[in-house]
Amino acid sequence: MSTKLEKYETMDREEIRQIQLERLQVTVNRAYRNVAFYRNLMDKHGIVPEDITSLDDLSRIPFTTREDLLKNQPYGMFAIPLREVVRLHSSSGTTREPIVVGYSRNDIEHWTELMTRVLYTAGVDRDDIVQIAFDYGLFTGALGFHYGAERIGATVIPCSRLNANKQIVVMRNYRSTVLVCTPTFALHIANVLKNEGISPAELSLKIGLFGSEPWSEVIRKEIEEGLHINALDNYGLSEIMGPGVSVECYEKNGLHIFEDHFIPEVIDPKTGESLPDGEKGELVLTTITKEAFPMIRYRTGDYTSLDHSTCPCGRTLVRMSRVSERTDDMIVVQGINVYPSQIEQILTEIEGAEPHYRLRVDRNGALDELEVWVEVSSHIFFDEVKKMSAIEEQIQKRIEETFGLSIKVRLVEPGSIKKWKENSV
Ligand SMILES: [Zn+2]
Asked: Which domains does the chain have, with CATH numbers?
Protein backbone atom coordinates (compact mmCIF):
# COMPACT_ATOMS: atom_id res chain seq x y z
CA MET A 1 0.00 0.00 0.00
CA SER A 2 1.40 3.37 -0.97
CA THR A 3 1.08 6.23 1.46
CA LYS A 4 3.49 8.54 -0.28
CA LEU A 5 4.15 11.67 1.74
CA GLU A 6 4.36 14.75 -0.42
CA LYS A 7 7.01 17.32 0.33
CA TYR A 8 4.32 19.79 1.45
CA GLU A 9 2.97 17.37 4.01
CA THR A 10 6.05 17.10 6.21
CA MET A 11 7.39 20.65 6.34
CA ASP A 12 8.07 22.25 9.68
CA ARG A 13 5.65 24.90 10.93
CA GLU A 14 7.90 27.82 9.99
CA GLU A 15 8.19 26.61 6.40
CA ILE A 16 4.42 26.13 6.13
CA ARG A 17 3.78 29.61 7.51
CA GLN A 18 6.25 31.18 5.10
CA ILE A 19 4.59 29.54 2.08
CA GLN A 20 1.17 30.52 3.40
CA LEU A 21 2.18 34.14 3.83
CA GLU A 22 3.60 34.44 0.31
CA ARG A 23 0.52 32.83 -1.23
CA LEU A 24 -1.85 34.82 0.96
CA GLN A 25 -0.29 38.08 -0.18
CA VAL A 26 -0.79 37.11 -3.83
CA THR A 27 -4.38 36.07 -3.14
CA VAL A 28 -5.33 39.25 -1.27
CA ASN A 29 -3.74 41.31 -3.99
CA ARG A 30 -5.62 39.43 -6.72
CA ALA A 31 -8.93 39.66 -4.87
CA TYR A 32 -8.47 43.37 -4.17
CA ARG A 33 -7.63 44.16 -7.77
CA ASN A 34 -10.25 42.00 -9.47
CA VAL A 35 -13.22 41.48 -7.16
CA ALA A 36 -15.30 44.58 -6.41
CA PHE A 37 -16.70 42.92 -3.28
CA TYR A 38 -13.24 42.51 -1.71
CA ARG A 39 -12.05 45.93 -2.83
CA ASN A 40 -15.08 47.60 -1.24
CA LEU A 41 -14.79 45.51 1.91
CA MET A 42 -11.12 46.34 2.40
CA ASP A 43 -11.55 50.00 1.48
CA LYS A 44 -14.34 50.25 4.02
CA HIS A 45 -12.02 48.92 6.71
CA GLY A 46 -9.04 50.97 5.57
CA ILE A 47 -6.94 47.99 4.53
CA VAL A 48 -4.74 47.74 1.44
CA PRO A 49 -3.07 44.51 0.25
CA GLU A 50 0.34 45.82 1.38
CA ASP A 51 -0.92 45.77 4.97
CA ILE A 52 -0.75 41.97 4.96
CA THR A 53 2.82 41.53 6.19
CA SER A 54 2.26 38.55 8.49
CA LEU A 55 -0.28 35.74 8.78
CA ASP A 56 -1.76 37.50 11.81
CA ASP A 57 -2.76 40.40 9.57
CA LEU A 58 -5.30 38.13 7.89
CA SER A 59 -7.62 38.67 10.85
CA ARG A 60 -7.88 42.37 9.93
CA ILE A 61 -9.98 41.43 6.89
CA PRO A 62 -13.65 40.77 7.78
CA PHE A 63 -15.28 37.39 7.10
CA THR A 64 -16.95 36.47 3.83
CA THR A 65 -20.34 34.84 4.30
CA ARG A 66 -22.65 32.73 2.22
CA GLU A 67 -24.98 35.73 2.00
CA ASP A 68 -22.15 37.74 0.42
CA LEU A 69 -21.79 35.05 -2.23
CA LEU A 70 -25.54 34.95 -2.85
CA LYS A 71 -25.64 38.71 -3.34
CA ASN A 72 -22.89 38.50 -5.93
CA GLN A 73 -24.27 35.61 -8.00
CA PRO A 74 -23.51 34.41 -10.55
CA TYR A 75 -20.10 35.87 -11.43
CA GLY A 76 -19.53 38.82 -9.06
CA MET A 77 -16.93 36.97 -6.94
CA PHE A 78 -14.87 35.78 -9.91
CA ALA A 79 -11.35 37.21 -10.02
CA ILE A 80 -10.63 36.36 -13.65
CA PRO A 81 -12.59 37.02 -16.86
CA LEU A 82 -15.10 34.32 -17.81
CA ARG A 83 -13.15 33.40 -20.93
CA GLU A 84 -10.37 32.14 -18.66
CA VAL A 85 -12.78 30.05 -16.61
CA VAL A 86 -12.67 26.46 -17.85
CA ARG A 87 -15.24 24.88 -15.53
CA LEU A 88 -18.27 25.81 -13.47
CA HIS A 89 -19.70 23.85 -10.54
CA SER A 90 -22.21 24.75 -7.90
CA SER A 91 -22.86 24.01 -4.28
CA SER A 92 -25.63 21.52 -3.65
CA GLY A 93 -28.75 23.61 -3.85
CA THR A 94 -31.74 21.43 -3.22
CA THR A 95 -32.67 23.02 0.05
CA ARG A 96 -30.83 26.28 -0.39
CA GLU A 97 -30.05 28.45 -3.34
CA PRO A 98 -26.97 27.01 -5.06
CA ILE A 99 -23.79 29.06 -5.39
CA VAL A 100 -21.97 28.99 -8.70
CA VAL A 101 -18.19 28.63 -8.51
CA GLY A 102 -15.56 28.73 -11.26
CA TYR A 103 -12.13 27.26 -11.98
CA SER A 104 -9.22 28.43 -14.11
CA ARG A 105 -7.01 25.87 -15.81
CA ASN A 106 -4.52 26.21 -12.93
CA ASP A 107 -7.31 25.74 -10.40
CA ILE A 108 -8.26 22.44 -12.01
CA GLU A 109 -4.60 21.43 -12.00
CA HIS A 110 -4.24 22.24 -8.28
CA TRP A 111 -7.49 20.49 -7.48
CA THR A 112 -6.37 17.36 -9.34
CA GLU A 113 -3.06 17.41 -7.48
CA LEU A 114 -4.84 17.75 -4.14
CA MET A 115 -7.13 14.86 -5.00
CA THR A 116 -4.10 12.69 -5.76
CA ARG A 117 -2.88 13.56 -2.26
CA VAL A 118 -6.28 12.60 -0.79
CA LEU A 119 -6.13 9.27 -2.60
CA TYR A 120 -2.48 8.56 -1.70
CA THR A 121 -3.25 9.31 1.94
CA ALA A 122 -5.93 6.63 1.78
CA GLY A 123 -3.44 4.23 0.24
CA VAL A 124 -4.96 4.22 -3.25
CA ASP A 125 -2.49 3.63 -6.09
CA ARG A 126 -2.36 2.75 -9.77
CA ASP A 127 -3.30 -0.87 -9.16
CA ASP A 128 -6.66 0.14 -7.72
CA ILE A 129 -10.07 0.17 -9.36
CA VAL A 130 -11.98 3.17 -8.09
CA GLN A 131 -15.78 3.11 -8.23
CA ILE A 132 -17.11 6.65 -7.98
CA ALA A 133 -20.75 6.53 -6.93
CA PHE A 134 -21.16 10.27 -6.40
CA ASP A 135 -23.45 12.11 -8.75
CA TYR A 136 -21.53 13.46 -11.76
CA GLY A 137 -22.79 16.94 -12.49
CA LEU A 138 -22.74 20.38 -10.94
CA PHE A 139 -21.78 18.80 -7.61
CA THR A 140 -17.98 18.78 -7.18
CA GLY A 141 -17.54 15.35 -5.57
CA ALA A 142 -17.49 13.04 -8.56
CA LEU A 143 -15.31 14.99 -10.97
CA GLY A 144 -12.89 15.96 -8.20
CA PHE A 145 -12.20 12.33 -7.35
CA HIS A 146 -12.34 11.30 -11.00
CA TYR A 147 -9.50 13.60 -12.06
CA GLY A 148 -7.35 12.71 -9.05
CA ALA A 149 -7.80 8.96 -9.48
CA GLU A 150 -7.01 9.10 -13.19
CA ARG A 151 -3.93 11.20 -12.47
CA ILE A 152 -2.45 8.55 -10.18
CA GLY A 153 -3.14 5.95 -12.84
CA ALA A 154 -5.89 4.05 -11.05
CA THR A 155 -8.73 2.56 -13.10
CA VAL A 156 -11.80 4.74 -12.67
CA ILE A 157 -15.39 3.53 -12.92
CA PRO A 158 -17.75 6.53 -13.15
CA CYS A 159 -20.78 5.01 -11.52
CA SER A 160 -23.39 7.61 -10.73
CA ARG A 161 -27.15 7.20 -10.81
CA LEU A 162 -27.15 3.47 -10.14
CA ASN A 163 -29.03 2.10 -7.17
CA ALA A 164 -27.31 0.02 -4.52
CA ASN A 165 -28.08 -3.32 -6.19
CA LYS A 166 -26.57 -2.19 -9.47
CA GLN A 167 -23.56 -0.71 -7.67
CA ILE A 168 -22.99 -4.11 -6.11
CA VAL A 169 -23.15 -5.83 -9.52
CA VAL A 170 -20.52 -3.42 -10.88
CA MET A 171 -18.42 -3.81 -7.76
CA ARG A 172 -18.50 -7.58 -7.93
CA ASN A 173 -18.06 -8.01 -11.69
CA TYR A 174 -15.36 -5.40 -12.22
CA ARG A 175 -13.61 -6.11 -8.90
CA SER A 176 -13.62 -2.53 -7.59
CA THR A 177 -11.14 -2.03 -4.76
CA VAL A 178 -12.10 1.52 -3.74
CA LEU A 179 -15.56 2.98 -3.19
CA VAL A 180 -16.14 6.74 -3.27
CA CYS A 181 -19.57 8.09 -2.23
CA THR A 182 -21.50 9.55 0.69
CA PRO A 183 -21.41 7.59 3.96
CA THR A 184 -25.21 7.27 3.80
CA PHE A 185 -25.00 5.53 0.46
CA ALA A 186 -22.13 3.29 1.58
CA LEU A 187 -24.18 2.23 4.59
CA HIS A 188 -27.13 1.54 2.33
CA ILE A 189 -24.97 -0.62 0.05
CA ALA A 190 -23.78 -2.52 3.13
CA ASN A 191 -27.39 -3.08 4.21
CA VAL A 192 -28.43 -4.29 0.76
CA LEU A 193 -25.48 -6.72 0.70
CA LYS A 194 -26.62 -8.12 4.01
CA ASN A 195 -30.26 -8.39 2.95
CA GLU A 196 -29.31 -10.12 -0.28
CA GLY A 197 -27.12 -12.54 1.63
CA ILE A 198 -23.96 -11.56 -0.26
CA SER A 199 -20.79 -11.86 1.78
CA PRO A 200 -18.46 -8.86 1.51
CA ALA A 201 -15.71 -11.46 1.01
CA GLU A 202 -17.11 -11.97 -2.49
CA LEU A 203 -16.07 -8.40 -3.28
CA SER A 204 -12.57 -6.99 -3.80
CA LEU A 205 -13.22 -3.74 -1.91
CA LYS A 206 -10.58 -2.61 0.58
CA ILE A 207 -10.86 1.18 0.91
CA GLY A 208 -13.79 3.58 1.17
CA LEU A 209 -13.47 7.35 0.88
CA PHE A 210 -16.62 8.96 2.15
CA GLY A 211 -17.61 12.57 2.51
CA SER A 212 -19.94 15.44 1.65
CA GLU A 213 -22.01 14.95 4.81
CA PRO A 214 -21.24 14.53 8.50
CA TRP A 215 -21.05 10.94 9.78
CA SER A 216 -20.26 9.36 13.09
CA GLU A 217 -17.86 6.70 14.39
CA VAL A 218 -20.85 4.37 14.81
CA ILE A 219 -21.66 4.67 11.11
CA ARG A 220 -17.96 4.17 10.27
CA LYS A 221 -17.92 0.93 12.21
CA GLU A 222 -21.08 -0.33 10.51
CA ILE A 223 -19.72 0.49 7.05
CA GLU A 224 -16.32 -1.07 7.78
CA GLU A 225 -17.89 -4.26 9.06
CA GLY A 226 -20.56 -4.40 6.39
CA LEU A 227 -18.18 -3.91 3.47
CA HIS A 228 -14.92 -5.28 4.96
CA ILE A 229 -13.05 -2.08 4.23
CA ASN A 230 -11.16 0.75 5.84
CA ALA A 231 -13.47 3.77 5.72
CA LEU A 232 -11.85 7.21 5.69
CA ASP A 233 -13.41 10.64 5.94
CA ASN A 234 -12.61 13.49 3.59
CA TYR A 235 -13.79 17.08 3.63
CA GLY A 236 -14.34 19.95 1.25
CA LEU A 237 -16.95 22.33 -0.05
CA SER A 238 -17.63 23.84 -3.46
CA GLU A 239 -17.25 27.43 -2.30
CA ILE A 240 -13.65 26.59 -1.37
CA MET A 241 -12.95 24.05 -4.15
CA GLY A 242 -14.83 20.80 -3.61
CA PRO A 243 -13.35 17.68 -1.99
CA GLY A 244 -9.61 17.95 -1.40
CA VAL A 245 -9.52 20.42 1.49
CA SER A 246 -8.67 17.75 4.06
CA VAL A 247 -8.52 13.99 4.49
CA GLU A 248 -8.07 11.47 7.28
CA CYS A 249 -4.89 9.43 7.49
CA TYR A 250 -4.88 5.89 8.84
CA GLU A 251 -4.64 7.16 12.41
CA LYS A 252 -8.33 8.10 11.97
CA ASN A 253 -7.86 10.88 14.43
CA GLY A 254 -8.67 14.07 12.57
CA LEU A 255 -8.39 15.22 8.96
CA HIS A 256 -5.13 16.78 7.71
CA ILE A 257 -5.84 20.12 6.05
CA PHE A 258 -3.73 20.86 2.95
CA GLU A 259 -2.28 24.02 4.43
CA ASP A 260 -0.17 24.82 1.38
CA HIS A 261 -3.51 25.66 -0.34
CA PHE A 262 -5.80 26.73 2.51
CA ILE A 263 -5.50 28.67 5.75
CA PRO A 264 -7.90 27.37 8.39
CA GLU A 265 -9.20 29.25 11.43
CA VAL A 266 -11.76 28.18 14.01
CA ILE A 267 -13.92 30.95 15.45
CA ASP A 268 -16.66 31.41 17.98
CA PRO A 269 -19.65 31.76 15.63
CA LYS A 270 -21.27 34.35 17.89
CA THR A 271 -18.36 36.69 18.60
CA GLY A 272 -16.07 35.93 15.63
CA GLU A 273 -13.17 35.49 18.10
CA SER A 274 -10.48 33.04 17.07
CA LEU A 275 -10.46 29.87 19.23
CA PRO A 276 -7.40 27.93 20.46
CA ASP A 277 -6.57 24.32 19.49
CA GLY A 278 -9.05 21.81 20.81
CA GLU A 279 -11.97 24.21 21.14
CA LYS A 280 -14.91 23.62 18.85
CA GLY A 281 -16.23 26.43 16.70
CA GLU A 282 -17.00 27.38 13.13
CA LEU A 283 -14.39 26.58 10.49
CA VAL A 284 -13.25 29.59 8.44
CA LEU A 285 -11.15 28.96 5.35
CA THR A 286 -9.01 31.18 3.14
CA THR A 287 -7.89 29.86 -0.23
CA ILE A 288 -4.32 30.77 -1.13
CA THR A 289 -3.87 29.30 -4.60
CA LYS A 290 -7.29 29.74 -6.21
CA GLU A 291 -7.34 32.06 -9.24
CA ALA A 292 -10.96 32.12 -10.42
CA PHE A 293 -12.80 32.11 -7.12
CA PRO A 294 -10.55 33.22 -4.25
CA MET A 295 -12.21 33.15 -0.83
CA ILE A 296 -10.86 35.19 2.05
CA ARG A 297 -11.99 34.09 5.51
CA TYR A 298 -15.06 32.23 4.29
CA ARG A 299 -17.40 31.07 7.04
CA THR A 300 -18.10 27.44 6.16
CA GLY A 301 -20.89 26.83 8.68
CA ASP A 302 -19.14 23.60 9.74
CA TYR A 303 -18.25 22.92 13.37
CA THR A 304 -14.80 21.56 14.09
CA SER A 305 -11.65 22.12 16.17
CA LEU A 306 -7.98 22.24 15.18
CA ASP A 307 -5.06 20.17 16.44
CA HIS A 308 -1.47 21.21 15.67
CA SER A 309 0.15 18.37 17.61
CA THR A 310 2.32 15.87 15.75
CA CYS A 311 0.47 13.04 14.06
CA PRO A 312 2.07 9.56 14.22
CA CYS A 313 1.63 9.30 10.42
CA GLY A 314 4.44 11.81 9.92
CA ARG A 315 2.40 14.61 8.39
CA THR A 316 2.93 18.00 9.96
CA LEU A 317 -0.26 19.45 8.48
CA VAL A 318 -2.81 20.61 11.05
CA ARG A 319 -5.72 18.28 11.73
CA MET A 320 -9.38 19.27 11.99
CA SER A 321 -11.73 17.11 14.01
CA ARG A 322 -14.44 15.35 12.03
CA VAL A 323 -17.32 17.67 11.25
CA SER A 324 -20.25 16.39 13.23
CA GLU A 325 -22.63 19.26 12.76
CA ARG A 326 -23.26 22.45 10.86
CA THR A 327 -24.39 25.82 12.06
CA ASP A 328 -27.37 25.52 9.72
CA ASP A 329 -29.03 22.87 7.60
CA MET A 330 -29.27 20.10 10.12
CA ILE A 331 -32.60 19.42 11.75
CA VAL A 332 -33.19 17.37 14.85
CA VAL A 333 -36.25 15.14 14.89
CA GLN A 334 -37.04 13.00 17.92
CA GLY A 335 -33.43 13.49 18.98
CA ILE A 336 -32.07 12.23 15.67
CA ASN A 337 -29.92 14.43 13.45
CA VAL A 338 -31.24 14.63 9.94
CA TYR A 339 -29.22 16.23 7.18
CA PRO A 340 -31.01 17.33 4.03
CA SER A 341 -28.16 15.86 1.95
CA GLN A 342 -29.00 12.43 3.34
CA ILE A 343 -32.67 12.78 2.37
CA GLU A 344 -31.56 13.98 -1.04
CA GLN A 345 -29.38 10.91 -1.52
CA ILE A 346 -32.28 8.64 -0.64
CA LEU A 347 -34.57 10.39 -3.10
CA THR A 348 -32.09 10.08 -5.97
CA GLU A 349 -32.26 6.31 -5.54
CA ILE A 350 -36.03 6.11 -5.83
CA GLU A 351 -37.40 5.92 -9.31
CA GLY A 352 -40.09 8.49 -10.03
CA ALA A 353 -39.13 10.73 -7.09
CA GLU A 354 -37.42 13.99 -8.03
CA PRO A 355 -34.68 15.38 -5.78
CA HIS A 356 -36.88 18.41 -5.07
CA TYR A 357 -38.31 18.29 -1.61
CA ARG A 358 -39.25 20.19 1.45
CA LEU A 359 -38.87 19.08 5.05
CA ARG A 360 -41.43 20.10 7.62
CA VAL A 361 -41.14 19.32 11.29
CA ASP A 362 -44.29 19.42 13.36
CA ARG A 363 -43.35 20.00 16.99
CA ASN A 364 -46.89 20.37 18.32
CA GLY A 365 -47.67 16.84 19.45
CA ALA A 366 -45.95 14.73 22.10
CA LEU A 367 -43.39 13.61 19.53
CA ASP A 368 -41.86 15.67 16.71
CA GLU A 369 -43.09 14.56 13.38
CA LEU A 370 -41.17 14.88 10.17
CA GLU A 371 -43.06 15.41 6.98
CA VAL A 372 -41.28 15.19 3.64
CA TRP A 373 -42.85 16.76 0.60
CA VAL A 374 -41.43 15.28 -2.56
CA GLU A 375 -41.99 16.13 -6.18
CA VAL A 376 -42.71 13.28 -8.56
CA SER A 377 -42.34 13.11 -12.33
CA SER A 378 -45.37 14.54 -14.13
CA HIS A 379 -46.49 11.35 -15.87
CA ILE A 380 -46.69 9.62 -12.52
CA PHE A 381 -48.39 12.48 -10.73
CA PHE A 382 -51.19 12.77 -13.21
CA ASP A 383 -51.70 9.18 -14.30
CA GLU A 384 -50.60 6.57 -11.86
CA VAL A 385 -52.19 6.45 -8.46
CA LYS A 386 -50.82 2.99 -7.72
CA LYS A 387 -47.29 4.05 -8.50
CA MET A 388 -47.72 7.09 -6.27
CA SER A 389 -48.43 5.00 -3.19
CA ALA A 390 -45.58 2.63 -4.07
CA ILE A 391 -43.18 5.59 -4.18
CA GLU A 392 -44.57 6.93 -0.93
CA GLU A 393 -43.99 3.59 0.73
CA GLN A 394 -40.46 3.27 -0.62
CA ILE A 395 -39.46 6.71 0.65
CA GLN A 396 -40.96 5.97 4.06
CA LYS A 397 -39.18 2.65 4.27
CA ARG A 398 -35.78 3.98 3.23
CA ILE A 399 -35.93 6.92 5.64
CA GLU A 400 -37.03 4.61 8.40
CA GLU A 401 -34.10 2.25 7.67
CA THR A 402 -31.60 5.10 7.58
CA PHE A 403 -32.72 7.18 10.55
CA GLY A 404 -35.02 4.91 12.50
CA LEU A 405 -37.71 7.55 12.13
CA SER A 406 -41.23 7.05 10.94
CA ILE A 407 -42.26 9.94 8.77
CA LYS A 408 -45.09 11.25 6.68
CA VAL A 409 -44.56 11.53 2.93
CA ARG A 410 -46.54 13.81 0.74
CA LEU A 411 -46.05 13.64 -3.02
CA VAL A 412 -46.57 16.88 -4.84
CA GLU A 413 -46.84 18.10 -8.38
CA PRO A 414 -43.62 18.82 -10.35
CA GLY A 415 -42.52 22.43 -9.95
CA SER A 416 -44.47 23.10 -6.77
CA ILE A 417 -41.49 23.00 -4.38
CA LYS A 418 -39.62 25.52 -6.48
CA LYS A 419 -42.67 27.78 -6.40
CA TRP A 420 -42.98 27.38 -2.65
CA LYS A 421 -39.30 28.24 -2.16
CA GLU A 422 -39.53 31.36 -4.31
CA ASN A 423 -42.55 32.56 -2.37
CA SER A 424 -41.01 31.91 0.99
CA VAL A 425 -37.74 33.82 0.42
ZN1 LIG B 1 -1.86 11.72 10.23
From this structure: 1-326 (3.40.50.12780), 331-424 (3.30.300.30)
